[in-house]
Amino acid sequence: MNVDDSNKVKPNISGSSYLWDYMIKQNDKAKCKICSAILSRKNGTTSGLRKHLFQMHKLEAFGVNSKKLDIKPQQFSVDEKQKLDSLIINAIVEDGRSFGDMRQSGILKVFNHLKPGYLPPHRNTIQRRLKRLQSEEKLMLIKELSKIQSLGITCDFWSDKRLYSYLCLTGHYITSNYQFVSKILSFSWLHHRHSSTNISMVIKKELKDLNVSEKTRSITTDGAASMSKIGETLYGDTKQIYCVAHRLHLVVCNGLGLWVRKQKLLYASTTDAITKIDISEDDSDEEDFTDDIQFISQPSSVTNSSSSLESFGNSFDISNELLNTNLDNNVIGNENLMDEEPDNFSDDIIDNWSIDVIEDLDISSGETVQQNIGDLMKKCRSMVKLINKSSILMNYVSKLKQQFNIRRSLQLDCKSRWNSSHQLIVVMLIYKKIVNKIHSEKHDIGLNNKQMNKLSSIELDQFDWKMLELLDFVLKPFAQATKLLSSTQYPTIGISYFAIVQIRDFLEDLNTVDVDDWKILFNFKVLLLNQLEKYFMEKDEQWQLMKNHAYFDPIGYGCLTRRERRTVESNIIESHESCTMEEMIDEQEANETQSKLNRKRKSTSSKTSPMTKFLNSVGKKRVCSSMDIPTASKNTLNEEFTTYRTLAQREYNSIVDGDQDPDVVQFWQSHQIELQQLSKIATSYLSTPAISVTSESAFSTASYLLRKQWSHLTPINLSHSIFLKDKLHTDFNTPY
């Protein structure tokens, strides 16, 4: 058909509806009226249809919109074009941009000014390049991992808002140059049931693909049921370590009852059964406490985007990652943005950390302290919600913040991060003057009766404020410990053991006579100490594993008793002898095989040598070397233990005295000559991470990528983007 026939309607680029003058809709396909071709329009896209009309039928109105820009023609060499394209793709991965960002009209104008004639790659091209980049970087990763001796991995799960599940594997190792490295080994879409069998199969496949199955010495996971036995299914004697951060999270939440809900006993009319229900305050938080006047709130997506952007921008500043909150006291932002309904705080955190948090307290136990703490936390959360749902209260609070020079913003906590509850306590103490002023002037602010009744029900008395102060005091060591552990720049196993021991000593110090109401603080410490022993000390195998690994970090070594050090050294010698024996057996088997081949080749032509004849004549024969482990090796290892004890104790004293910061990798690099055997063993033990913080960082980045602009990002493309995130650090002048 001639497209210039008079009965055809000329397309108008001002409206997309003119496209259908040339096409007929057929479900997820379209039929061209000109040539009767059947074209796909999956997900409702029309780009393929426009491309068909432009390329096949020369309808210029359906060409690329960028042609409307006055792009100056200019010739580029192939190398220069490839370099620019690579920089564009790297920028998209590093900055978390959508694939079509670089072809937005405003960006194109910038390119046209800087590089006239240059057109960035199309989003489909970027998608194909991502897949190729992922394959290339994986090969480079395999090559890099082939040079290491041992590897520690972490494994964790995350589900996005679309309920797609992802498994993240991160690797940790120390190079021959004594550099501690943490990298994402795999970020894969897991569309199977989260059973331990399926998880184990995926992990083993990923490790096999990377050729590191036999090098994997440990795996760090949370304590979920599906992850509890993963270590037993991996190669050899791979040790499983439970994430210390997750355990501390359970210690705080369950010890203090931060999420305990008050229960009532109701008797049904027909039976004597007792049914537990939540108090009315829990339900009332979901009621409408907005003002009588019309109030137009900001879209929730704005809050999510802002929160995710903060998380992405600091995705490798791990102390903020574990808190997942804005900790910058000096930042003054849009109050409508900062104080927007904070229920969205945990929207992007869908993991196992909230599974074992206790909510229902057994009322028959008579434990009133946890119940009081739970009620107090509910009051604080209700206050934050009420303020954020009322424009009158928000404006009133904003004025008081300026008056009292307060820059922190109110934000709810979430069940999967205990740090957020501590931050809620800290902020409530900062807002004490404001909260008290709200209660004293609630009749003059302009609130409706429902809001005033709610305020009256959640008013904090003097005892409540005292409890908040003591909670802040007792939780500060946990908060500082979390920040101390939250790093990807150094091994954390030794410093984790140090932190736990110091927290235990703090909780066992019950003679806090300089603190008012010390009896309340005594109860708090006892509750936390019981949970600390439950999740750490009572887990004999896990606790001993931590000691074995912490021994090689001077900061951990200094916390071990003399008996514990001797026990660890015996375990190390036994393990070292076992490894040495295996190596000798492998070497002997290889030598015997080679000897058999040599004898087979020479059996027909070789003659008995004069030496052999002589030995036979005196009744002696040549024998194979003994399988006994050389005594010199044992002596050398024991001598190195003696040297290490002196050096480690000296390093520990310098650290706790404040003379230097802990740097275990630098310590072993400095003493690798006098501790030749121990240094090799140490790199294996220290590669074990104590926390799965790198996985949390990857999940934070993934939640940012799935913001509104990328809501249709496929799981495969998301996996490729996260995998490449920590690997594309190309300098501008690096040749491609």
TrEMBL record:
GO CC aspect terms: nucleus
Localization per record: Nucleus
Keywords: DNA-binding, Metal-binding, Nucleus, Transcription, Transcription regulation, Zinc, Zinc-finger
Chain spans, region Disordered: 587-612
One Pfam family from the record: Dimer_Tnp_hAT
Residue ranges constituting the BED-type domain according to the UniProt record: 14-64
Superkingdom field: Eukaryota
GO term, biological process aspect, one: post-embryonic development
Gene Ontology terms, MF aspect: DNA binding; protein dimerization activity; zinc ion binding
Major location category of this protein: nucleus
Xref: InterPro entries: HATC_C_dom, RNaseH-like_sf, Znf_BED, ZnF_BED_domain_contain, Znf_C2H2_sf
PANTHER family attached to this UniProt entry: ZINC FINGER BED DOMAIN-CONTAINING PROTEIN 39, ZINC FINGER BED DOMAIN-CONTAINING PROTEIN 4
Name this protein carries in UniProt: BED-type domain-containing protein
Organism: Rotaria sordida
